[in-house]
Amino acid sequence: MKISAHAVGRMLGPWQEGPGPAHQRLSDRLRLLVLDGRIPLGSALPGERDLATALSTSRTTVGAAYRTLVDQRYLAARARARATVRLPDDPPPERRSAAGSAGIDLSFAAPPAPVEILHTAFATALEQLPRHFERHGYDRYGIAELREAVAGWYRRRSLPTAPDHILITNGAQHALALLARTLLSPRDRVLIDHPTYPHAISTFTEARSRLLAVAVTSSGWDTAQLQEAARSANLAYLIPDFHNPTGLCMPTGVRAGLRLACPTVVDETMTDLALDGADPEPFALHMPTAISIGSVSKSIWGGLRIGWIRATPSLLERVQQTRHATDLGTPVVEQLATAVLLNEHRTRRPGTLRQLRSQRDALCEALAEHLPEVRSLRPVGGVTLWATFPDPISSRLAAIAPDYGVTIAAGPRFGIGGAFERNIRLPYTLPPGQLAQAIGRLARARRALARGAAGTHTPAPVA
Q: Which terminus of the chain is less hemmed in, N or C, by CB atoms within 10 Å?
């Protein structure tokens, strides 16, 4: 696969920032793009002259950067051919954590399972299962019990919903993929929050869409920019409820005044995780045409792969026709268990919210103690905090952090065009002691970078 010079330039972002000569900064950023998977293995990079023109730099700088990557075995060079991306044949062995113990994974924003609640729900589901044995088990829209339970969840939030407005999926990511396959054609424009959920970016990129990014800042959403961008978009994807990764919640006034001129998909995966203040109103109360997707992966457990789409029956008919290409339905036992959890109002548990609130506060305290130069907003809900460093070190920090016993998700994974090199996403789904220990290790990794150390770790999965 050939990658154009302009595409590489967008991925590099502000590569000129940072210490050292220009060719070193360029080779280091290209190496991080390879480790991060944004430049796939086997890809053919643009020629030196083309990349130099796209970056407004000298061919000498690009040539020196390429030679450094060849020496480090991140590029394979051949005469009169593009250099291709690779990884060293013999990567350095995993060094023992500087903390001397097992690593702490901060790349997954996932709460632990509520064991007793899940056990009871599945026990009830198994009791109910025999009444489904006479059916074929391939429910195109999901079983009636769960569609009614999801509709009831919306009705309790003051949004009238009937079961025929619900289609059950294998998680919210599956729901988004089905909608992208149904609603988008190649080269369509998709409006997204910036930053946003990484797997949403992947979904739209695989659909060959063009992304229109509108910034979500510490002040929240810019209504005017969203409405302007929506005029040229074919679809919008927003996370108004405890936004992933920032933890912000779109105010009611913004929801009420927002009118987008394109179909709008609203991700409500975090809705039941309000830590401060009232629960957010359903977005569709103010924009009735909005397509809502949700799941129980954050409010209950990531291993319970149940999600849904709330939309008009005519759109759901189109979605289920598209679905045949990937799967034939959702497991019945998991649907029955989820129906029990929704009907018993288990997705919003005061004890769990108190625990998350305590863990969030512990994370903020650890950052203030170990990394006082890092800025962050205290999230009002959800499970993640968006931390901002004074320097563009995010990818480099993610590549070296496992050497110090902690794994993190670098900021550029949540954006496009090389953005957010000053940011990392930090979940607060671990106990306070572990969070404090993780931030202490991250601070040691940060100091190692300042001394000139470099990491070689590829990125961990993100959830």
A: N
Nearest to 11 by CA among 414, 425, 412, 462: 412
CA gap 60, 43 in Å, rounded:
22
Sign of CA dihedral 33, 408, 173, 221: negative
How far is Cα 68 from Cα 62, in angstroms, rounded to an integer? Answer: 10
Q: Are 141 and 147 in contact (CB under 8 A)?
A: yes
> Max alpha carbon distance in the chain (Å)?
72
- Helix (H) / strand (E) containing 26: helix 22-35
Q: Note the pTM of the prediction, 2 decimals.
A: 0.84
From the DSSP assignment, how many helices (H) and strands (E) are in the chain?
15, 16
pLDDT tens-digit series, residues 66-108? 888 888 888 888 777 788 888 786 444 444 444 445 799 999 8
Q: By C-alpha distance, which of 98, 14, 25 is closest to 447?
A: 98
Q: Which helix (H) or strand (E) holds 182?
A: helix 172-183
Report residue 425 as tokens.
């996403």
The closest of 294, 237, 293, 225 to 262, measured between CA atoms, is 237
Helix (H) or strand (E) run with residue 340 in it: helix 332-343
pLDDT at 446: 96
For every residue of 100-159, which 3-state class applies, written as one string?
CCCCEECCCCCCCCCHHHHHHHHHHHHHHHHHHCCCCCCCCCCCHHHHHHHHHHHHHCCC
Of 293, 235, 223, nearest to 264 by C-alpha is 235
What is the full DSSP assignment across 46-73? Answer: PPHHHHHHHHTS-HHHHHHHHHHHHHTT
Cβ-contact 435, 359 below 8 angstroms: yes
Which structure tokens are listed for 173?
């990511």
Tens-digit pLDDT profile for residues 332-376: 999 999 999 999 999 999 999 999 999 999 999 999 999 999 999
Arithmetic mean of pLDDT, 152-156: 98
Residue located via tokens 């019945």: 332
Q: What angle do CA 189, 171, 165 make, to 5 degrees?
A: 75
3-state helix, strand, coil in the chain (%, to 5): 40, 15, 45
